[in-house]
Write a structure and sequence with these properties.
The complex is a heterodimer of chains A (about 280) and B (about 625). Chain A is an alpha+beta fold. Chain A has 7 helices and 11 strands. In chain A, strands 3-6-7-11-10-9-8 form a 7-stranded mixed beta sheet, with helices on both faces. In chain A, strands 1-2 form a two-stranded antiparallel sheet. Chain B folds into 5 domains: about 90 residues, Phenylalanyl-tRNA Synthetase, Chain B, domain 1; about 200 residues, Phenylalanyl-trna Synthetase, Chain B, domain 3 (Phenylalanyl-tRNA Synthetase, Chain B, domain 3), CATH 3.50.40; about 70 residues, Phenylalanyl-tRNA Synthetase, Chain B, domain 1 (2-Layer Sandwich); about 120 residues, Bira Bifunctional Protein, Domain 2 (BirA Bifunctional Protein, domain 2), CATH 3.30.930.10; about 80 residues, 2-Layer Sandwich (Alpha-Beta Plaits). In chain B, helix 11 crosses helix 13. The chains are: A alpha+beta (about 280), B alpha+beta (about 625). Chains A and B meet through strand 1, helix 1, strand 3, strand 6 and helix 4 of A and helix 3, helix 8, helix 11, helix 13 and helix 14 of B.
Chain lengths: ~280, ~625
């Protein structure tokens, strides 16, 4: 028997007695993203949420005692579980700065899903096309737009010929499908230790198409992710020859995508276990 | 960094005006400013080719640009000169040349510098200036400092700050008479590890020093924390007559450690911890001497000999690059002449070399560009000046997809299966007040541990959602969460499923495999997929909701929809949920009973307000022929 019911003023048709459950909006964004990238041949890779300093920082060209570490406010674990000295490949030192590296790899909550990429590159030979969705943690005060836990999706494409132009093309393809509207990509110079060049990625506003509205703060563009061409140091650390292979990486917040797409105004709502939110999706 | 637009103007001069004066003096001499783009245009130029500009603000007759200098450019761009250099490159203009003539020493006084830790202090320069006139700085210096966010103090301190903001080299001035002296009356400066102890700093704070902290000391005591802040005991005061100016270079890691340990970030430590070239030290001390002679002196002022302990002079080096390299990484179609034009625009000098595959450029890296260490760094420079907007998007060729991570797919199958059974997915926090894995730096006292189960989260969510059941229009709360739990041995993905209704709660937690076996296999064949829909989130009201029931007899044949329509119309936006919960027939009449839920987005609805609505509804329903509210 079909029947109209109303949830929070939204009319919809549900089957009484056997109504379907709702998937969390973040799950829906992750799955949609995975599906779109899947069309381009990207598969999903995962990794642990408790990481080592080695995979979260060192191999990503973020050495200890380097100011770039400040870009990631980190939760450290109290005890040093399974102390493991990390090994460093020193054949080609791309980093002129580091004067010392951590001898013991301390444990932490991963601050990004980049360690998934690092681990994947260690165990897979190019060509590589992966995305890595997952929960990450940042030691920071929470408010409507900041959470200490949130989801990220990162992407990685490595082969012999992938260029910054492909990054643009890939992201244009993704965002156009994701927002259901023709999207153009704008790159601005930026810096992340694991890419070179590093860029900030803006997308043309999916709402107004670039004319300026409240969503894009009248700018016509929305700042949406960081990206760049994988730093040769990072490739080298993972055992991939940087003279032969190259590629791009990008990373964005799933929560941010969901907030934009569904007009959710407070990131904390995602983690309250509240069906008043979930049942709207 | 706060950057003064007026300050920048003094740099960008007509190329014809080769005065050779440092900017400070050019300003004083009324140098002809270069035509700089308007502040907003300048910000745009920087945003798309160099740095984020957080804001452009008019301050007095100046504009202040708040520029987010990228961490890898802190070496050369945390200064007005650095930003100016960047701007002229982006504009494709030649940079205004500077010459520091230096000043002949007018006294024999000399700082004896003893660097005990050359590894941590690549360069230390010092000079004694006797007979300075401490007082207020000229207005233009004070104005520029204020624009850049610095409070003017006295001319000596202002000059040290000015030089830092001008070229990026932190300086420090000591009152020379407060330092211990040798038999010739020359002060000694020792750069060493502290070995403990404490110091009262310029800001009045007393801090204890770690054994390994790098400090500046005279023969008796510590007088400054290297690269972070000077001490109170040698502070410049109104009665200071003789000064020592320090222009040094400290190892970044050391400064960072100290600044972290003391939880103290200063303009100096920020610059040192990112790393700056020791070459800046000389420029800094020469400019400072010039300015002291100009703005804090009289005819008796004497400049001593400059001491210079330069232990680690950086070697000049080249980076090799070809147009092919650039195109291969960026996906551009540049020609050699484009590469050359861009290199020149970036103010790089280079040599051309013919190699098999064409031309190779040997690009000389300027000493301040510590960020340029590999070919890719140069390609980035070329790319951003060429303009990323000029790079055409290319969609990659489609490739066959490898299989996803097994757990990812498995978790999704469990999700779909549970949703088909009517369970909705929630997410809760990983931080809790008890568990097995403890955080070193929890965000709050009750969030010290990582969860070791999902059940607790589900239990709490069942309670809170049960409270909202009428609002949700459901009687059973059916939820699940799939997430990582953290045990001593390892982390693991778990699935927790919970039901709450009148009969009570039922909560179970499974491993991913168990959940997969239990739920996914039990619904064989059925392929009812969950349809995605366009959703726009509706704000959740923070105010309580009110419940009312209403039952009405209507003539047989009238549908409940017709009744609802009237109820809806009367209630307006305040009716957020309604449910038909009872229908029965009696003679030629039928009775419909509804649960109604009222809630406002603006306030707590009072009983009176809801009753008024109900009265309105009753009146309207009773007004229809043959209708009777029970």
């Amino acid at each position: 028997m079909k029947k109209k019911v109303v949830v929070n003023g939204t009319k919809k048709t549900e089957e009484i007695g056997n109504s379907l459950g709702h998937l969390h909006p973040l799950t829906q964004v992750i799955n949609e993203t995975a599906a779109i990238f899947g069309e381009l041949g990207f598969s999903v890779a995962s990794g642990p949420e408790i990481e080592t300093e080695h995979y979260n920082f060192d191999v990503l060209n973020i050495p200890a005692n380097h100011p770039s570490r400040d870009m990631w406010d980190t939760f450290w674990l109290r005890e040093t579980y399974n102390l493991q000295p990390t090994t460093y490949k020193k054949e080609q030192n791309y980093n002129s700065f580091s004067s010392e590296s951590s001898v013991v790899s301390r444990k932490l909550l991963r601050t990004h899903t980049s360690p998934v990429q690092a681990r994947y590159m260690e165990s897979h030979k190019p060509p590589i096309r992966i995305i890595s969705p997952g929960k990450v943690f940042r030691y920071e005060a929470t408010d409507a737009t900041h959470e200490a836990q949130f989801y990220q999706i990162e992407g990685l494409m490595i082969d012999e010929t992938t260029t910054l132009a492909h990054l643009k093309g890939t992201l244009e393809f993704f965002f156009t499908k994701f927002f259901g509207k023709k999207i153009s990509i704008r790159l601005r110079p930026s810096y992340f230790p694991f890419v070179e060049p590093g860029v900030e990625v803006d997308v043309s506003c999916f709402k107004c198409g670039g004319e300026g509205c409240s969503i894009c703060k009248q700018s016509g563009f929305i700042e949406i992710m960081g990206a760049g061409m994988v730093h040769p140091y990072v490739l080298n650390q993972a055992g991939i020859d940087p003279l032969k292979y190259q590629g791009f990486a990008f990373g964005t917040g799933v929560d941010r995508l969901a907030m934009l797409k569904y007009a959710v105004d407070d990131v904390r709502l995602f983690y309250h276990g509240d069906l008043r939110l979930v049942n709207q999706f | 960094m706060k950057v003064s637009y007026n300050w920048l103007k003094y740099y960008l001069k007509n190329h014809s005006e080769k005065t050779g004066l440092p900017a400070a003096r050019a300003a004083q001499a009324g140098g002809k400013p270069y035509k700089l783009p308007a502040p907003d245009k300048l910000a745009e130029l920087l945003i798309f080719n160099a740095f984020e500009v957080e804001s452009v603000e008019k301050v007095g007759n100046d504009h202040v640009l708040d520029i987010d200098v990228l961490p890898n450019r802190a070496h050369d761009c945390l200064s007005h000169k650095g930003i100016a250099r960047e701007i002229v490159r982006l504009l494709g203009k030649p940079i205004y040349p500077e010459k520091f003539v230096g000043h002949p020493a007018t006294s024999k006084k000399e700082v004896y510098v003893d660097v005990k830790e050359p590894g941590l202090c690549p360069r230390y320069m010092g000079v004694v200036i006797e007979g300075v006139k401490v007082g207020e700085s000229p207005a233009w210096i004070k104005e520029l400092l204020l624009s850049a966010g610095q409070r003017p103090k006295n001319n000596i301190v202002d000059i040290t700050n000015f030089v830092m903001l001008e070229i990026g080299q932190p300086l420090h001035a000591f009152d020379a008479d407060k330092l211990a002296k040798d038999e010739k009356g020359n002060p000694t400066i020792i750069v060493r590890k502290s070995g403990g102890g404490e110091i009262t700093l310029l800001d009045g704070k007393k801090v204890s020093l770690g054994q390994e902290t790098l400090v500046i000391a005279d023969q008796l005591q510590v007088i400054a924390i290297a690269g972070v802040m000077g001490g109170k005991s040698t502070e410049i005061s109104g009665s200071t007559r003789n000064i020592i100016i320090e222009s040094a270079n400290f190892e970044p890691g050391q400064v960072r450690k100290t600044s972290r340990a003391l939880a103290m970030r200063t303009d100096a430590s920020t610059r040192f911890e990112q790393g700056i070239t020791p070459e800046f030290a000389k420029e800094g001390i020469l400019l400072a001497i010039e300015m002291v002679l100009k703005y804090a002196s009289d005819k008796n002022t004497k400049v001593g000999l400059i001491s210079d302990k330069y232990h680690r002079k950086p070697l000049p080096y080249n980076l090799k690059i070809s147009t092919t390299n650039v195109n291969k990484l960026l996906g551009t179609k540049l020609k050699d002449r484009d590469t050359e034009k861009l290199l020149r625009q970036l103010d790089f000098t280079y040599e051309k070399k013919s190699i098999k595959s064409g031309i190779e450029y040997l690009v000389a890296v300027p000493s301040e560009r510590l960020d340029l260490t590999i070919k890719e760094d140069l390609i980035e420079e070329i790319g951003r000046v060429y303009g990323y907007r000029n790079i055409k998007a290319i969609k990659p060729k489609i490739k066959k997809k490898l299989s996803n991570d097994e757990k990812f797919d498995k978790a999704n199958k469990v999700r779909e299966a549970l949703a088909r059974e009517g369970f909705s997915e929630i997410m809760t926090y990983a931080f809790i007040n008890k568990g097995e894995i403890e955080l070193e730096n929890p965000i709050a006292e009750d969030k010290k541990f990582l969860r070791n189960n999902l059940k607790d989260g589900i239990t709490e969510a069942l309670v809170s959602n049960m409270r909202n059941a009428p609002l949700l229009g459901i009687t059973d709360i059916k939820i699940f969460e799939i997430g990582t739990v953290f045990k001593k041995e390892a982390e693991e993905i778990k699935v927790a499923v919970g039901i709450a209704n009148k009969k009570g709660n039922d909560i179970n937690e499974y491993t991913l495999d168990e959940a997969h076996d239990k739920f996914v296999k039990s619904i064989s064949g059925k392929t009812k997929t969950i349809k995605k829909k366009e959703v726009r989130y509706k704000h959740i009201s923070p105010y309580p909701f009110a419940l009312r029931d209403i039952a009405v007899f209507v003539p047989k044949g009238i549908k409940n929809d017709a009744v609802l329509k009237i109820i809806e119309k009367e209630s307006g936006l305040l009716l957020v949920q309604k449910k038909l919960f009872d229908v029965f027939e009696k003679g030629d009449k039928v009775s419909y009973a509804f649960n109604l839920v009222f809630q406002s987005h603006e306030k707590t609805l009072s009983d009176d307000e809801v009753n008024k609505i109900m009265m309105g509804i009753t009146k309207k329903l009773n007004g229809k022929t043959g209708w009777q509210v029970r």
